């Protein structure tokens, strides 16, 4: 499943992003804009002709999830928009709502955000839950989404998936390195309560919807799609990217053999180069 292009990137990763790479500080100005009834927090940087929307994972936010991409992707090539979904990051209040259909609501808010910013055409980069939102967006805003990149994402959940989520329900058992950024952002109570609600939401999806998150969306996606996945991902078994690859008509799949869930952070240079190459391909 590993493409020749990906093998080439892997061999050459040590030569990527040399001294002339400009790094940008986390002090960049984030802004809020009212979308429907919620003040949505977002960041917009760069002035390139290709616009990218970055969609974070569960309880994620702009800089906790995408710092290496915001700092390193070429701002003369891209205009980068990143957001905090409703109830996450600084898009609070309200508290996060995990009632049925929350991924579809996130997609609607994100589509409305781009319309409010008067951006008609854009590509999506979605990680984990953000990848699910991106899949739904690409199925709904077909005329707007140029390309789609998702990783660590799934269109359904199984009993096995729920068992994996239950193992990490208790945030007190997380390593301090994994836990602390969320505590800094949310405080211990909101972090713990929201994470528990996240786990519960998938139990409901399995019980009441047969595990279906967005299966029906996949056949509606017309955008060329790059599916990236860490073969050692402890949260999203390999069957999920394989399913996405099978069901998305213009999808390609690339595997990071030693990668886990956060390949864009762990292998940031390699990941960003793969993004560059895919976005540079002719539409």
From TrEMBL:
InterPro entries on file: AB_hydrolase_1, AB_hydrolase_fold
Domain of life according to the entry: Eukaryota
Pfam families on file: Abhydrolase_1
GO molecular function annotation: serine hydrolase activity
Coiled-coil features, chain-numbered ranges: none
Domain AB hydrolase-1 residue range list: 51-181
Name assigned to this protein: AB hydrolase-1 domain-containing protein
